Amino acid sequence: MKVILLTDVKGRGNEGDVIEVARGFGVNYLLPRKMATEATPGNIKQLEARMHNIRKREVGRHADAESLAATVTGTTLVIEARAGDTGKLFGSITAGAVAEALTAQIGVDIDRRKIGVHGHIKTLGDYPIVIHLYQDVTADIVVSVVREGGAAEAVAAAAAPVAEETVEVAEEEVVADEAAVEAVEATDADVDVADEADEADEDEVGAE
Q1: Domain count of the chain?
Q2: According to a count of CB atoms within 10 Å of the terminal CB, is the N or C end of the chain lower?
């Protein structure tokens, strides 16, 4: 049967699309949930009148998704979990757990169904995750699963390279300052030697 989507349906289409679906899927799932309506001539005519507003909403959603992607991309989420000696978790990390971590750690709410956790995460380690925000807009994050009580260590480890870089920059600045001081002292010494030479020449002239 043909239906008109009244909202975006993952894997099927976006609001306003006219698609062909199995009758059971349309009648038992899409229509009762107000996610679609039958593509009758009357409904298609109404759709044509609404297309401008539908496309306008689509542009707005796309812009919002790109803004959210810019905020989320590159984030490393640290999730603590109980694990055995081999690193195998007592349980698993699901898309729902990642969604909760996104809210708790960076303050964004994302539907767990958009988070690409392929199967459940069952061992300690770092996992690249793709979040499908809207149509072709995605965000790449890393989920770091650490042993329970190890979140502070993970944060410290992530901060260590920054601290080392700061120390290196400070040391370079000290070396540069010392070199500048030595150059000034050398210049002063040259001036003193030149002054002494001039005084010696004047004394010789006076003696003559």
Answers
A1: 3
A2: C
Query: Over the stretch 114-133, which tens digit does the pLDDT of each residue have?
Result: 999 877 899 999 999 999 99
Q: Is residue 55 pLDDT above 80, yes or no?
A: yes
Q: Whose CA is closest to 75, among 45, 41, 110? A: 110
Q: Are residues 119 and 162 in the same domain?
A: no
Q: Domain boundary residue among 121, 149, 177? A: 149
* Integer Cα distance of 30 and 35 in angstroms: 5
pLDDT at 149 (0 to 100) = 81
Q: CATH no. for residue 135?
A: 3.10.430.100
The per-residue b/e assignment along 114-141, b for 16 or more CB within 10 angstroms, e otherwise, is bbebeeebbebeebebebbbbeebbbeb
Please write the tens of the pLDDT for every residue from 57-103: 999 999 999 999 999 999 999 999 999 999 999 999 999 999 999 99
Structure tokens at 140: 């790449």
Q: Assign 3-class secondary structure to 76-137.
A: EEEEEECECCCCEEEEEECHHHHHHHHHHHHCCCCCHHHECCCCCEEECEEEEEEEEEECCE
**Amino acid symbol at 46:** Q
